[in-house]
Amino acid sequence: MAIKMGYYHLDGAEVYNTETELGIAIKESSVSREKLFVTSKVITNIKDISNAIDISLKKLKLDSVDLYLIHAPFFASSDKELQKAWAEMEKVKQSGKAKSIGVSNYLQAHLEATLKTATIPPSINQIEYHPYLQHGDLLSYHAAHDIAVAAYGPLTAVTKAKPGPCDDIYASLAKKYYVSEGEIALRWCIDQGIVAITTSGKEERLSDYLRATTFTMTPKEVKEISEAGNQKHYRGFWQAKFDKDSQS
């Protein structure tokens, strides 16, 4: 359904257990492979990355993915383990099985450890990102090291964390731009140069989200949401890995 509606960035992972279905959808679509941007992630088989990518490609029925990510850093108990895994990721890129490689859920300490020995730096870090989880100075660190940012859970302030200090702002901006509050949430990420990743099983909602590409908010409006968001903390994923009040 998503491909049919014009969503060509397909975000998968071995742990989602949907790679086989995603591969079927790609094969059955009328969209050429060159137009699709396919991402997969490794975590279950993190100890054998070279085999993990082969398994994912077989399920996806592809020769390569556009982006391959380490799904999370929490498998590692030392910098050396992070560095060893990244060295294996570099081999995946060098083999041509992934056009680009990156990470997900990495904090600054994880990135610093990885970059110490990397010959190919991570191209992107996919993190939970929304007004109620802005990660302090992490985005500035990404910018300083030319690492792109992708946001998962960008709709959290609209879908999971109500009521909150952003509610009235979202409602006002949605009225101003004749869009939904969800589209305002997506645009807040996009206007910061962040790739917004979302999902839905409803065709109407997927159609609506495409409108987020048709308008731009002012820098003042983006800042207003950011400042309001800092008044509340909410983490929707990986809660067990962080202290309750951690903004990391």
3D architecture notes:
- The chain is globular, with a radius of gyration of 18 Å.
- The protein is built from ten helices and seven strands.
- By secondary structure, the protein is an alpha/beta fold.
- It starts with 8 loop residues before the first strand and ends in a 19-residue tail after the last helix.
- The protein has a seven-stranded parallel beta sheet.
- Helix 1 links the parallel strand 1 and strand 2.
- 40% of the residues lie in helices and 12% in strands.
- Helix 1 crosses helix 2 and helix 3 crosses helix 4.
Order of helices and strands: EHEHEHEHEHEHHHEHH
Number of DSSP E strands: 7
Distance between the termini: 35 Å
Total helical elements? 10
Percent range for β-strand residues: 5-15%
Q: Name the poorly predicted regions.
A: none
Categorize the overall geometry: globular
Q: Please identify the structural class as seen in this structure.
A: alpha/beta
Largest sheet: 7 strands, parallel
In short:
The chain has ten helices and seven strands. With 248 residues, it is of the alpha/beta class.
Summarize the SSE layout with pairings.
Layout: E1 9-11, H1 19-28, E2 37-42, H2 49-60, E3 67-70, H3 79-95, E4 101-104, H4 108-117, E5 124-128, H5 138-144, E6 148-152, H6 156-159, H7 167-177, H8 181-190, E7 195-197, H9 203-209, H10 219-229
